[in-house]
């Protein structure tokens, strides 16, 4: 959307800015060509080696396509909190050094290291260090009080510390107040689903899933449209509702063929796993489909503990 909006303004852009749009263009079409964008961004930084924005765009693309090894060299070219955040993302694939990079980011830019605090809160929650996660979430709220991200982080840590969904809900209500109105109902229904799961009230969870699915039905973003389907399949699997799962899987497959691909998310492997677990395909077909998914995912894709959700998707 932002890329399209910038098209009429090209004549007012500098050479580096126009070249940046050209570099990003391959990832904005269907199907996206991420390797071409990566090569163009590399050429862009070689052409404009002192343009920090170009280096940031290159690093952001490597985070998006999960290329941690390339991030280390890029991080050194970017001053301040963003460079330290890039370094932490790269180091998190290597071990404890990522924590040190996040701490350095927060210490150097305590009033601007929002992304570092978000990452730190998520990392500590996923590692079970909920008091440290709560500390990072509290700092994030103080630094960026108008953002929902601090309260989302606080909800995760509070559940780990208290296992009290009333306390978690109180944090989430503060989050919902800060979410843009266009996505507020989607966020609320999604959180209501997970709250119901935490309370063990599965009928209530299905009701929240209905609301979540309705809230995203008009979205163009396939990531958001896929999530309630996949959550429903997971819940059906856990509760042994095989007939319902088969119907949901078929509906999801039929619907998703008309959706745009999402930059961050591959629907294919999730659907394949669900089909296999629901006995809609056998093991041989599952193994046949899996290499296709591996070929089509972003090159070098890796996951760290910071990528795993602790509360919600």
Quaternary structure annotation? single chain
Number of E strands: 0
Number of DSSP helical runs: 17
Q: Span between N and C termini?
A: 24 Å
Task: Describe what is shown at a glance.
The protein is an all-alpha fold. The chain has helices at residues 2-6, 15-24, 34-47, 52-64, 68-75, 80-91, 97-108, 114-126, 130-143, 149-162, 165-178, 181-199, 202-216, 222-239, 242-256, 267-277, 283-296.
Characterise this structure:
By secondary structure, the chain is an all-alpha fold. Among the domains are: 8-66, no CATH class; 219-305, no CATH class. It has helices at 2-6, 15-24, 34-47, 52-64, 68-75, 80-91, 97-108, 114-126, 130-143, 149-162, 165-178, 181-199, 202-216, 222-239, 242-256, 267-277, 283-296. α8 (114-126) packs parallel to α10 (149-162). The longest helix is centred in the middle third of the chain and has 19 residues, at 181-199. It is globular. The two termini are 24 Å apart.
């Amino acid at each position: 959307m932002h890329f399209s909006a910038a098209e009429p303004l090209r004549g007012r852009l500098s050479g580096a800015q126009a070249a940046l749009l050209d570099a990003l263009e391959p990832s904005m079409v269907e199907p996206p060509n991420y390797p071409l964008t990566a090569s163009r961004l590399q050429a862009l930084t070689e052409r404009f080696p002192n343009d920090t924005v170009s280096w940031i765009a290159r690093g952001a693309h490597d985070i998006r396509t999960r290329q941690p090894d390339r991030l280390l060299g890029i991080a050194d070219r970017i001053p301040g909190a963003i460079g330290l955040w890039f370094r932490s993302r790269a180091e998190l694939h290597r071990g404890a050094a990522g924590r040190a990079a996040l701490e350095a980011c927060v210490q150097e830019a305590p009033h601007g290291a929002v992304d570092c605090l978000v990452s730190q809160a998520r990392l500590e929650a996923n590692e079970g260090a909920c008091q440290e996660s709560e500390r990072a979430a509290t700092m994030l709220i103080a630094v960026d009080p108008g953002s929902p991200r601090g309260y989302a982080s606080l909800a995760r840590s509070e559940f780990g510390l208290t296992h009290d969904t009333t306390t978690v809900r109180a944090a989430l209500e503060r989050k919902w107040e800060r979410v843009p109105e266009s996505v507020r109902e989607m966020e609320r229904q999604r959180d209501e689903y997970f709250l119901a799961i935490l309370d063990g009230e599965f009928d209530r969870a299905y009701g929240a899933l209905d609301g979540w699915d309705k809230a995203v039905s008009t979205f163009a973003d396939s990531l958001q449209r896929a999530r309630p389907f996949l959550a429903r399949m997971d819940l059906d699997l856990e509760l042994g509702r095989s007939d319902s799962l088969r119907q949901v899987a078929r509906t999801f497959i039929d619907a998703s063929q008309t959706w745009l691909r999402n930059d961050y998310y591959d629907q294919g492997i999730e659907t394949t796993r669900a089909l296999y677990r629901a006995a809609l395909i056998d093991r041989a077909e599952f193994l046949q489909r899996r290499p296709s998914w591996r070929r089509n995912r972003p090159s070098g894709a890796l996951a760290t503990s910071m990528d795993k959700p602790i509360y919600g998707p």
